[in-house]
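Data deposition worksheet. Section B asks for the primary sequence of the deposited chain exactly as it was used as input, without tags or linkers unless they were present during the calculation. Section C holds the resulting structure in token form. Section D is free text for depositor observations; keep each observation to a single sentence. Incomplete worksheets are returned to the depositor.
Section A, Depositor: J.P.
Section B:
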Amino acid sequence: MNKDIWQGRPAHAVWLCTVCEASVVSPWLAEADHVHNRLLGAANRANEFSTGRALLRRASALYGVPVSATVSPGAHGKPAFPEYPDVHFNLSHALNRVVLTISSEQAVGVDIEHLDRQLRSRALAKRNCHPNELLALEDLDDEAHRLAFLEMWVRKEAVLKARGDGVHGGPSNVDSTAGPGRARYGTYADWHLHEWTTDGYLIVIASGSPASFEFHDASGLW
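Section C:
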């Protein structure tokens, strides 16, 4: 692997990786990961899980987390290291990409989507958008509406995942139009948004406080 991206201990970082076969990343998986992998059945799901978990194991080692560390879901399913509560992380995947973010300072959430994804944005917006977002969308033609909604959705997902409650927190509670690089949950909590666009994918990370993230492309480095 390219060793340069596996040095140091950045306070906030993000790694993007191409999904690969589970056998390729197998050396980086803990025994519990192998057990979970066998339960998944379908090869594509096993490959996504293995790539994401191996990326997590490799990157979290920079923060002193051993490969054997337990990964447990929270109340609403957000994974965490219970034995290393100061190492905050989140994963997301879309098509053949996996993205990981780690922070040693605060809770973070990440989402990724390919911007060509086709969806019924008008129906989805009615159920999932904040009133301010609906106003921003109302005069757009179909294609502009699809793209704008998709970008809003990625920002919403990042915020909800940072909070730890996912869709249980209610996507319509998130206003992604609160200002440049900002989103609001409910009437009070502002979230900081950090965005990258690469190879047609939009990646958004949400953090409760301002932060500067180091971006690493780990694709093809296994």
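Section D:
The chain has a mean pLDDT of 93.
The first strand starts at residue 12 and ends at 18.
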